[in-house]
Amino acid sequence: MRTPLLLAGLLAITACSAAAPEQSSAEAATGERAVAVVATGCFWCTESDFDKVPGVLRTTSGYIGGKIPNPSYKQVSAGGSGHIEALQIVYDPGKVSYATLVRHALRTSDPTDGGGQFCDRGSQYRPAIFVGNPAERRVAEAAKAEAGRVLSRPIATDILPRTRFYPAEDYHQDYHTKNPIRYRYYRLSCGRDARVREVWKSASR
Q1: Is 42 among the catalytic positions?
Q2: Which of 16, 42, 45, 119 is catalytic?
């Protein structure tokens, strides 16, 4: 759950709204599409991290893994629904591989922390890769093993079946572009980038 201190700080800042980006020209120009789902803590941050990856056509923040249909943010963030905050990624496999996306998820998170991510604690914020078939599972397992070798520590990122994905409420989508000041305050206060640098400092990017 977002900590009360962070939420108070967010509400105290005036948001600078920006229009959501238009449909990617790459998405309009290619018929090749595939879907990946990953979780690296707060989906605002996960979405921002993956929107920068060439070959990613569209991202959607949402929830996966629980038993309640159409869960709300309130239900998921409270920790009782069984869902995980996650990101659905539509990508062009001719421009970016599934392996690259999985590796990016590991490298932009703290894969050694299974109790949540950064300042957001609880199973609803734990890191995970959701696989849709045996080939994706093999890729995810290989990336997880590689991360373990690089970090010389156990990797807590779960590899789970890709079940139904529920998009989050509209105000969560493209949060980093619609509310850049609030988003930057949250990301900095949560210590996400500092922790990622600390965890991966000995690894070659």
Answers
A1: yes
A2: 42
